[in-house]
Amino acid sequence: MRNAVIIKSFQNGISVYLDPMLSFEELLNEIAFKFKESNHFFKDAKMAVSLEGRHLSEEEERYVLDTIITNSDLHIVCLVGKDEETNQNYLRALQQLEYRNSNQENDGHFYRGTLKNGQILETESSIVVLGDVYPGSAIISTKDIVILGGLFGKAYAGGSGNEGHFVVALEMSPEKLKIGDFKYKNNDKQIRWPIKSKIQPKIAYVKNNRVVMESITKELLSDLTL
């Protein structure tokens, strides 16, 4: 059933139609076949991905994305949904971050997976995480951190006192967050396992000698000097 997965392009990304009638195991096999067959079109391209045609749980989405990554050279920068304003804001953010990094040394890392309680991921490069950072886990980078999932644990960016870096996440509710020598202070009551609602991508960065956290908007990207 080779029409069970249909790939179409749109600006800055691809939409992937998934047959709603197949079993999930069969669907993953079809995705693997389709992306292996189409891999020559991607050639290390960085794209957003939209999954359409059937309802997927968050766990199923992760399996689909992992299958795409495993069977192609495509670099997925984010998973987009039906909220076009949020999608475009997040894409603009990633484009700006990519442009910024392209003018520096190209040494970013990509990590696929979820960090669970007790796990620590540490790198001297900028890092993109496809997954969540759960409570009790930590991600540490001397440069920038982009999390294509939820940040519910600890994040430390800009090691060695470098405050000119940032942390971006689709959902931002960290136990602790530090950029350079500045710690984020949240006056809101923390919820260990927050109820998921509408995705609000956010960026944390240093402004006026303190860490601020803001929703990603076109205006913010225009005014932000990182």
UniProtKB/TrEMBL annotation:
Tree of life domain: Bacteria
A single BP term in Gene Ontology: division septum assembly
Annotated Septum formation inhibitor MinC C-terminal domain residues: 111-213
PANTHER family to which the protein is assigned, alphabetical: SEPTUM SITE-DETERMINING PROTEIN MINC
Record text on subunit structure and interactions: Interacts with MinD and FtsZ.
Assigned protein family: Belongs to the MinC family.
Protein known as: Probable septum site-determining protein MinC
Taxonomic lineage from the root: Bacteria, Bacillati, Bacillota, Clostridia, Lachnospirales
